[in-house]
Amino acid sequence: MVPGIGGVLARNLVAYTGSAENVFSEPDKALIKIPGIGKVNAKRLKNSAVFERAEKELEFIRKYNIDVRFYTDKCYPRRLKACPDAPVILYSKGNVNADEERVVSIVGTRNATDYGKMICEQLISKFAERNYPILIVSGLAYGIDIQAHKMALKYGVPTAGVVGHGLDVIYPSLHAETARKMMGNGGLITDFPSGTKIDPSNFVRRNRVIAGLADATIVVESAEKGGALITAEIASSYNRDVFAFPGRVDETYSRGCNRIIRLNGASLIQDIDDLEFFMGWETQQKVQTVQPSLFVELTADEKKVVELLQREGELFIDQISSELRMPGSKVSALLLNMEFKSLLVVLPGKMYKLK
């Protein structure tokens, strides 16, 4: 609620003071010394209007049964938590399992063609046929987004809409009925509090949540510029898999997909079989996990990785690097070597767990 305090500064404040509560009881002199705060932000943190606004938000949360997750909570989505610019707070409504076994974001142009709509339906119908645990994430916008949500509802696949405003409104209002239906098998997610004004910049900002929640982002249709390509770029920066469906060279809303494929920003897929191949889902379904030999000799660093994964279960490479305080390049080589020794399983989205 404090102007000028975004996710990065909020994390710094909590890290330096020890807790969110301590942030507001810390003396001004101590706050000013925290990197990025200074006198102006320190003064803002003491503004009583902030607490009044927060109280109103709490009333809204209780009245409408909104689920709230702070970034230090155990229930905060694990994939999103690994992203450096993840929201400090997430609001959600409905029945959303953001930590589903498989999560796919489907994005695209607001001017979806019949071709794009057909691709959405074919892909999501195949997810339903496979009957494995999966969540479809999109942005509830016109075009490909709403088509993805509608097809998920049609075929009984859980779906979550990430919106660029508070949960007191639905934008566009034309999609309110679809949003209502999603509550029973999915729901809505946002990092914006109630009363947030509808602003174009918010929809760009929410794209990081769409990308961060998923193992893979799929671009169905896009012009040469657009929000879908921004989401794909963000997903790539998170080391998540990005895919795109190709289209005709003379079709405006396939140019973005064709271009991102040509520049190696996304892998080309034509159907669910391609997606499963790239994600390793086909292998996971058909091959039983084999217990690694108990007599494999481990280096000191490998023992640290094994102990960490035994404790945490599954972690992204960035999380492993952070927990072990090792450079990413060293961790990457270490994990690759452990794969060769059949000690690890690589999950979708470049997440690791022990065999």
TrEMBL record:
Give residue ranges for domain Smf/DprA SLOG: 69-275
Biological process annotations from GO = DNA-mediated transformation
Q: Which SUPFAM superfamilies match?
A: MCP/YpsA-like, RuvA domain 2-like
| Pfam families xref list | DNA_processg_A, HHH_5, WHD_DprA
Transmembrane regions:
none
Domain named DprA winged helix: residues: 297-350
PANTHER family the UniProt entry points to: PROTEIN SMF
Protein family membership: Belongs to the DprA/Smf family.
Please state what the protein is called: DNA processing protein
